[in-house]
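Researcher: Checking consistency across runs. Here is Glycosyl transferase family 1 domain-containing protein again:
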Amino acid sequence: MKIAIVCSNYFNISQETANGTAIFDYSLITNLVKHTKTKNLTITAFASGASQLPVKVESVDVNPSSSNEDLIVTGKNVLYELALLSKAFSLQEQFDLFHINIGDGDLALPFYPFVKKPILITLHHILDKEFIRRYFSLYQQSPNVFFISASNAQRKLLPDLNYLTTIYHGVDTNIFQFNSTGGASIMWAGRAIPEKGLDLVVEVADRVKQETKLFGIHRKEHQAWLKKTVLDKINVTNRPVPISLEMGLQRLQLVEYFQTSKLFLFPVSYEESFGLVLIEAMSCGTPVVTFAKGSIPEIIKDGETGFIVNSSNEDIRGDWIIKKTGVEGLIEAVERIYSMPEDKYLAMRKACLSRVEKHFTIEKMVENYIQAYKTVRRGGLANKATTTEKTAWEK
């Protein structure tokens, strides 16, 4: 089976990448390679020419388009995405199927009438704009296009697409290794943007008076927000508890902090499509406190691998253990973890790893994608537009 995995030209795909979709691409491809002989797979990646992957890489430019500021400012970087898609589809006779990981496949969809081979699209984001809903409605009846959702929450906005199945993202537990005891501090990691709740983490840390370590990915467009709502609060004199913010660490440099934190606090304000960082924390044994947004209830087992909190009294997503909402609910959840007897806390850490091992390993993700490839090659009839197994939060 000859598979073309079409990635974005925006980033180099490598172990050092910090972009969520690029992390997915790297993890999927490097682990699929382990099955090329036993499953008779041939993998070709379409990506930036400087990508570091253990497969043949087809590209339209050796450099990622993100390295050219003018392309980003003018929005013309999208032309390189289209060029990469065009190159991939022009070689369709060489492949049995295409697996698209550029955005949510929106750029690839107009090509489908000219492609005879199956097109499998992984949805990586929540699509929350009306024009996107209208746009995707144009392709609901595309016979050779199949969608994979990264969580069932993604399907609520676009319920009528030709879904093949839901496949959760996976984490390598050999890299994000379990630590049975943890540490004493609160941890947060992610893009330094308002939607990721960094300012709320600082507020909660001040209220509960616990040391907190923050690890951000810089976004130029949110620099003023970061200074006003986060840095200025952190850098006050006579701070009662230490709060540190370190920017630009590579993903694998965070492992030791996941392993040695008391909890991972992640109060996102948007509909989280999956939340790879959550399973990375749990793989290391660190419980999560977060709002009930998007896929969160599919990932976190309330009371067992952390606590889920409703974000406000007007947005009740479930009858969780913590009854307070918003910041007050986050504070109660954090304090509950800190006040746990040691045996119960250590049991929660073990439960985090067990949940990852059951639902969110890289091996399980790759196994499910191989099965999806086989299904679409046969015409996608075995699991078309359905989900055959219970979601993680139902188990």
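Researcher: Does this match what you'd expect to see?
Model: One thing to look at in this run: The first strand starts at residue 2 and ends at 6.
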